[in-house]
Structure formats: structure tokens, C-alpha cells
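Long-time lurker. I teach an intro course on protein structure, and each term I like to show students one example going from raw sequence to a predicted 3D structure in C-alpha cell notation. This year I'd like something fresh instead of my usual example. Would anyone be willing to generate the C-alpha cells for the chain below so I can use it in lecture? Attribution to the forum is fine with me.
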Amino acid sequence: MIVVLSLQAGRENAVSLMEQFRFGDRAAVVPHGHERLLVILSDEIDEEKIMALEAHPLVDRVIPIETPYQLVSKHHQPEKTIVKVGDVHIGGADLVVIAGPCAVEGEEQLKKTALAIKKAGASILRGGAFKPRTSPYSFQGLKTEGLAVLARVKEEVGLPAVSEVMDPREVDDAAIYLDLIQIGARNMSNTPLLQEVGRQKRPVLLKRNPAATYEEWLLAAEYIAAEGNTQIILCERGLRTFEPYTRNTLDVGAVPALKEMTHLPVLVDPSHGTGRWHMVPDLSKAALAAGADGLMIEVHCDPERALSDGRQSLHPDRFSRLMEQLRKLKQTLEQIK
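-- Reply from a regular --
Happy to contribute to a lecture. Here you go:
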């Protein structure tokens, strides 16, 4: 049960309300947005108490909970959340594409790629600074220096930037450099990290773990929202299955499923979803047709020499052709709605 308090209600009034209705330790007060407070109850209450709450002058409305995730549920907020990253709005009518290399390898490499993706029409620049690799002997990223390079290039090129953080201790520094903070698939269930980004004012891109259910994924988002940050974007990036041909099996069906479950925008990453660049264009189109709010695509100015994930990265020329096709597809989809 969620009790949405009026804008005039402060924390002291919220605590008094909990005492008045004898909620005890079944309830918690959490912020929602910049001013409003919510009282979250761990269970449902009877109809008589609901009517009494709804009549209370400090209560705006009472929302029954039908799912274990609450703040990110469509029951809590029927209207779509629009997440603003710089001047880019994710969750609306615009075609939003995040693009760039898997890893920041140096300023020249990143700038060359960034200029190319901007010319092609990309909305946001991506580049990994902290690289959690399967092998400890693989390139692990430039870390904080990589964030500084990303910040310099994004300012010079004129695109907002996103990069992954892996540790709660990295979040404050990352927020200085980035417009969007990414939680990678390996860290989807890293509770301290989720809570730390939830305390930030930066929007968050939350990738799905390759073994996570939709509910587990949304509960991870709930950890972020419960700390006060509801500017969350979900990103599908494939499941681990028995098929060895692809890196992962991209779950395009996650898009319409999540549209029924949550108000948060949903992106799709066909690069990690397949691990093969030649499959990225077709699955990008499939994701848009399924209703995705945007895409996250790996692009490298020289994929054959990439220090990370060159096999799944598009060359800028191929990315430019794909962007032309995606714009045409977007127009067609809008006409047949």
C-alpha cells in the first residue's frame, strides 16, 4: 500500500500520520521527486482504514499495491516517465540512440568516434571508463582518467555522456563528469551501488542481468527509486541461454512486457544482446518495432583494433546507414499506430 501525501505534508507530519494510524514498523517514509513524500506499507490494510486515510487532509491518495515493486510500478504511476539527459528526452516521441565505443581508449579514438556518431544523428555518447571484464587479464579501462577524457570530448563535441560505475565509492566522482550514470549487467543486484546512485540527482541507466527476471530487474530499479531518484531508464541487453552462436539471446519481448509493468522508459542494447555487429541493424529495427524508447549501440572508429568488444561494434559508416534506416522506420511506425 502506498499513501501519497500532499505537497504541504512534511516529514514530521508523515511520522505523526504513521503513529495516528498505528502503522508501526510496517511503514516507511520515502521521498518522491523533490517535494512530495510517500508512506510505503509492507502490506495491505482494510477498507475502513483506507477510507479514513483518504479523508485525511494531508493525504492526496492511497494506492493498493499488487506487485512487490512499488514506485516503479504502473499501478503507482500510470503516465510514462520522461527522463531528461542533458537536452535529450527519453521516453517520448523522439528517436533516442546512445552510441560510442565499449571502452574509452584515448582522447583521439573517442573524439573521432564521437564526431562520427553525432553527424549520423546519435543523441548521447557512451564510453566505458571502468570495464568489468570476464578475464582479469583483459583491458580494464582507464578508470577516472577515462571519465575525464569522456568529459572533455563530450563538451567539445556537444553530446551528453554516459558511462558505467561499479563501486559506490566511484559514484560521486562519476556524477561530476557524466550526464547519465550506468549500472551494468554484472551490478544489477549490487544493492549498495543501487542505493548510492539513488541518492544522486543524475539519471540512471539500469541494465538487465543476463539471468534476471523482469520482476528482479524492476526490484533493482525500486532500490534506486526508494532513495528518491526516479529518473531511471531500463536497458535490455540479452539473456544467457544455451545458444553459443551469439554472446547472449536478445529478449525483444521484454519491451512490450515492461511497458505493461512499469512507467519507466525502456532501451535495447543489440550489441551486447548478440555480440556480432552484423546482427545489430536487424535487431535494432526489431526493438523499435516492439516499442523501445531508444537504442544503445556500440560504435568504434576502428573495430578491428578495439581494446574491448570490437566484434560487436559498428564502424561509423555502417552506423550512419543504420541511423538513416531507423529514422525511416520510426516515421513508418508512427503512421501505423
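Some talking points for your students: The longest strand covers residues 27-32. The CA atoms of residues 139 and 307 lie 7 Å apart.
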